[in-house]
Amino acid sequence: MKREDIENKINDFLVEEFEIEGSKISPGAHLKNDLGLESLDFVDIAVIVQKEFGLTLKGEEMTAIHTLQNLYDYIDTFYHKK
């Protein structure tokens, strides 16, 4: 999967599932501070990542993801390991 595809899928579900304005979405956006996501939202993100990308995010891995860039990078790294 291309990096652009990963970013588009992530961005699309943030807009659709969490009703985040597209203008707020950028690689440097902090998931909590900028996008207003809460702890329970991270569970939803993990479920969506599992469904869309076949990647299981563990709790300790999610705690290291603070920005959209971190999330993109994590998923992209998973695909390049295959």
What is this structure, in a nutshell?
This protein has 82 residues and is mainly alpha-helical. It has helices spanning 3-18, 39-53, 59-62, 68-81. The chain has a single domain (3-19, 29-81), classed as ACP-like (Non-ribosomal Peptide Synthetase Peptidyl Carrier Protein, Chain A), CATH 1.10.1200.10.
Question: Could you walk me through the main structural features you see in this protein, from its secondary elements to its overall organization?
Answer:
- The relative contact order is 0.18.
- This protein is mostly helical.
- It has helices at residues 3-18, 39-53, 59-62, 68-81.
- The chain has one domain: ACP-like (Non-ribosomal Peptide Synthetase Peptidyl Carrier Protein, Chain A).
- It is globular, with a radius of gyration of 12 Å.
- Helix 1 (3-18) crosses helix 2 (39-53).
- The chain has four helices and no strands.
- The model has no long low-confidence stretch (mean pLDDT 92).
CATH homologous superfamily (4th level) name: ACP-like
Give the helix proportion (percent range).
Answer: 55-70%
* Low-confidence blocks of residues: none
Which radius of gyration do the C-alpha atoms yield?
Answer: 12 Å
What is the CA–CA distance across the termini? Answer: 11 Å
Output the CATH class name: Mainly Alpha
- Quaternary class: single chain
Number of helices: 4
Question: Which structural class matches the secondary elements?
Answer: mainly alpha
Listing every helix as H and every strand as E from the N terminus to the C terminus, the arrangement reads: HHHH
CATH topology-level name: Non-ribosomal Peptide Synthetase Peptidyl Carrier Protein, Chain A
